[in-house]
Specification:
With 163 residues, this protein is of the alpha+beta class. The protein has a domain at 50-163. The chain is built from 5 helices and 3 strands. A hairpin with a 2-residue loop joins strand 1 (111-119) and strand 2. The protein is elongated, with a radius of gyration of 35 Å. The N and C termini lie far apart (111 Å).
Length: 163
Amino acid sequence: MTTATHNAAGLKRLGQFAHHAWFARDERGQFLIQFVIIFPLLMLLVGLVVDGGLMYWQFRRAEVTANAAAQAASHTIDIDYFRATNQIRLDQERAASIANEFVARNARGSMQITRIAIQPNQISVFASARVSTIFFRLVGISSLAMNVDGHAYPAFGINVEGQ
């Protein structure tokens, strides 16, 4: 068999499968397949970023409110005890009242105090907050709960604490 005959036979065999080769090279519809796969993943990522950012912002806001409530309550010292002993001690009833009032005024309904622990020289405010979601609602999660706490102690002094 000569080279020309060999090449002609090869082209004839190639021609038999030419329609299969054309089908394998056809790229119509591939963008649609990529879009169907990537778009939901992209939307999931956007949802995580938006809801995650919102949750972090609400968590920080609740945490700052709990810390500020504890700080405000830590200034309620027992004056009579201080005058008698020259030592600092929290007025427990006033401290709890101040912490509750502070959270009520600053939480905007999204946060509730769960417990207030008052020791003679420290107050701890424990609270829970609910965060509404945006994208997680699509999978049935309309809100998430988080717990925060704030701690403070009364400090006194002119130049140095305890002076």
